[in-house]
Design a protein that fits this description.
The protein is 27% helix and 38% strand. The chain has two helices and four strands. It has a four-stranded antiparallel sheet. The longest helix has 12 residues.
Length: 78
Amino acid sequence: MVRAYVLLTIEIGKVERVIEEIKAISGVVKADAVTGPYDAIVELEAADLGELTRKILHDIHNIDGVIDTTTAIVVETE
């Protein structure tokens, strides 16, 4: 299992809709709007790195309103 946090930059006025669409993607554990340099943070799980990449590049990036993503893959957990 691979887990990552995906930080999103989203077009103004589209944050709520984008988050709702992201929540419908399989493997999304949590999706929240946040303040600061990013508009939303998504916790995402996948079977392997290939699946994780597909979810980000094909599912998240294709949502209207998503401008950019930054992905932080979890490398160590307690």
